[in-house]
């Protein structure tokens, strides 16, 4: 499908062919200011990261690299011509990266029948056209989920839709709009009320002449339902507003998978007619995995910033030492590109980095931010090509080495010098006597090594090379 870029015509699409401007001299002061504002708005500081002040004439190269990676541009860390063109295109105001904590703990609505209300109407369009555009935008999402959307009245509606210019609401952390072009709209996640705001300074239309209301509303509704931005340029949830024939705007497979990971498929599409109708969507997660099932096994277990994370299928449980309750989340709520089916994960605490493995690929993340240049191949670590997946991985803080388990073998990786040590692979059964021949998940906790195999968990004394305790894999959750 061909898209037409709203402001910049075909320049954006062809810009890869333009010479790259060096960051000094040729970039005008105006462009520099625009780039700084863009990066500050859409790539905000992460909580816990020290803020390094950049000079007026300098750009934060790390943020710039993140932005270039997100948009599939050449990652140069320099303010080149194609990067500037991308920054000038109209877009959604929701940041492309969000802090680990800004992701809501329950990133979806707890019911399937939702109401919305238009708080005001743009003078750009007849009322009936506005209502029709909004209705159609909701249909995009109700077509592929069990969700329904009806117009409500008063303040009791679930999702409030507002046209506003500049500073436009009293909601905390609601950034002002920026006048015509640039930011066209933004929305809040279900955890923050699901508000939808549309920039009144745009020229709203029902066709492709100005800013198409239906198209932008459909994107913003994705946010109010719990979806973050997609990196796939054809997806509706891509942050850039690409002017296209409104009759041809539809959800990409990526959008469908995203929304269905939260709410499941539409009941008609479900077909089996058995379970879907009677179950409430709040219990969707419970239907799939019962944490206290004595036969439960885990795909991966790891520490992360003091918490312990347990992965299974599309879910993740977070056990924090400070809280007695266990939080359950969709993996995709933290790492939208990783839907589930994680094979292994481990944290290198002194680098504040979590490594996540899926098939022959792995990702490095800081909090929920996937680092530039990932995914990479597991074979780049020195794991032989015959290995198609890692079953478990664990970093030993004492030795600064990581153990990778796959099938009946394991490898030891030197994290300081970045190589697999020569004597590996070793046989799991020979070097970890008493645990069987395979490992599903592995964790180091308070200096002890825990190896998970099926519904059992072995506490292993690495020095004496023997099992010192056997428990159920779910013994961490106080089920028994
Ligand atoms: Zn957006
Ligand atoms: Zn707003």
TrEMBL record:
It holds the Pfam family PG_binding_1. Its cofactor is Zn(2+); Ca(2+). The keyword Cell inner membrane does not apply. The keyword rRNA-binding does not apply. Residues 105-265 form the Peptidase metallopeptidase domain. Residues 262-283 are annotated as: Disordered. Residues 1-17 form the signal peptide. Hemopexin repeats lie at residues 295-338, 339-385, 387-435, 436-479. It comes from the Eukaryota. Residues 272-283 have a biased composition (Polar residues). Keywords: Calcium, Hydrolase, Metal-binding, Metalloprotease, Protease, Repeat, Signal, Zinc, Zymogen. Belongs to the peptidase M10A family. This is Stromelysin-1-like.
């Amino acid at each position: 499908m061909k898209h037409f870029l709203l402001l910049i015509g075909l320049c954006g699409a062809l810009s890869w062919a333009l010479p790259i401007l060096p960051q000094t001299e040729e970039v005008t002061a105006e462009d520099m200011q625009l780039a700084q504002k863009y990066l500050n708005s859409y790539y905000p500081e992460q909580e816990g990261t020290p803020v390094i002040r950049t000079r007026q004439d300098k750009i934060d190269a790390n943020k710039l690299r993140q932005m270039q990676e997100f948009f599939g541009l050449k990652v140069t860390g320099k303010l080149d011509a194609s990067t500037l063109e991308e920054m000038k295109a109209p877009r959604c105001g929701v940041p492309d990266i969000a802090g680990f904590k800004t992701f809501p703990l329950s990133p979806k609505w707890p019911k399937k029948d939702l109401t919305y209300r238009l708080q005001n109407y743009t003078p750009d369009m007849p009322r009936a056209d506005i209502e029709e555009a909004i209705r159609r935008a909701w249909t995009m999402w109700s077509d592929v989920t069990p969700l329904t959307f009806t117009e409500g009245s008063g303040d009791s509606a679930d999702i409030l839709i507002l046209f506003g210019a500049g500073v436009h609401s009293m909601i905390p952390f609601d950034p002002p709009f920026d006048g015509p072009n640039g930011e066209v709209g933004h929305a809040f996640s279900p955890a923050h009320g699901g508000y939808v705001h549309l920039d009144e300074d745009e020229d709203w239309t029902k066709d492709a002449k100005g800013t198409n209301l239906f198209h932008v509303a459909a994107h913003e509704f994705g946010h109010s339902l719990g979806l973050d931005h997609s990196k796939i340029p054809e997806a509706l949830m891509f942050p850039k507003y690409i002017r296209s024939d409104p009759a041809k705007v539809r959800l990409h497979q990526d959008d469908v998978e995203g929304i269905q990971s939260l709410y499941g498929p539409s009941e008609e599409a479900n077909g089996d007619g058995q379970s879907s109708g009677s179950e409430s969507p709040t219990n969707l997660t419970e239907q799939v995995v019962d944490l206290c099932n004595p036969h439960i096994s885990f795909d991966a277990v790891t520490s992360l910033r003091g918490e312990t994370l347990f992965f299974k299928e599309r879910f993740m449980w977070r056990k924090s030492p400070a809280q007695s309750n266990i939080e359950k989340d969709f993996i995709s709520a933290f790492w939208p590109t990783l839907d589930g089916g994680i094979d292994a994960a481990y944290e290198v605490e002194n680098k504040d980095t979590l490594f996540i493995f899926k098939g022959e690929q792995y990702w490095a993340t800081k909090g929920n931010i996937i680092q530039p240049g990932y995914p990479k191949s597991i074979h780049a670590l020195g794991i032989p090509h015959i290995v198609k997946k890692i079953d478990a991985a664990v970093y030993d803080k004492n030795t600064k080495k990581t153990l990778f388990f796959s099938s009946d073998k394991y490898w030891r990786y030197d994290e300081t010098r970045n190589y697999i040590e020569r004597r590996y692979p070793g046989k799991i059964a020979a070097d970890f006597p008493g645990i069987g021949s395979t490992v599903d998940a592995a964790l180091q906790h308070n200096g002890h090594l825990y190896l998970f195999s099926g519904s059992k968990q072995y506490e292993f004394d690495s020095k004496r090379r023997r099992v010192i305790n056997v428990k159920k894999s779910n013994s961490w959750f106080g089920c028994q």
